[in-house]
Amino acid sequence: MEAIGNAGSAIGILSKDGVVLVGEKKVTSKLLQTSTSTEKMYKIDDHVACAVAGIMSDANILINTARVQAQRYTFAYQEPMPVEQLFQSSFVVYKAGYTQFCGVSDLLVFAFLFAGWVSRETSPTP
């Protein structure tokens, strides 16, 4: 449980001009050398990015699943996968199936913040 407390936060800010994703990397010991890796930020596809708060090893499982789903959709339909559909097909279905097996623990990922764009032929209606 100590690892969960040291996982760090992720914040997403939406404005009329765009989206900002920020991830906190906690330094748990002064003896550890800090790296410049972006372990909290992931590129899912050309049009989707994701910030993660939680255990990174568990997040990698779900991120890789999302990347595969996005590439399969692009290959089949020759267009980027809608962000909502990407989330539903990758995360909701995978997490539900993953926890149904005996001896498999739940994934310790607190939050996934998705940011993406969707091209539209017409303006969205409220």
Automatic annotation (TrEMBL):
It comes from the Eukaryota. Belongs to the peptidase T1A family. SUPFAM superfamilies: N-terminal nucleophile aminohydrolases (Ntn hydrolases) (SSF56235). It comes from Acer negundo (Box elder). GO terms for biological process: proteolysis involved in protein catabolic process. InterPro entries: Ntn_hydrolases_N (IPR029055), Proteasome_alpha (IPR050115), Proteasome_alpha-type (IPR023332), Proteasome_sua/b (IPR001353). Coiled coil: none annotated. Keywords: Proteasome. GO terms for cellular component: proteasome core complex, alpha-subunit complex. It holds the Pfam family Proteasome. This is Uncharacterized protein.
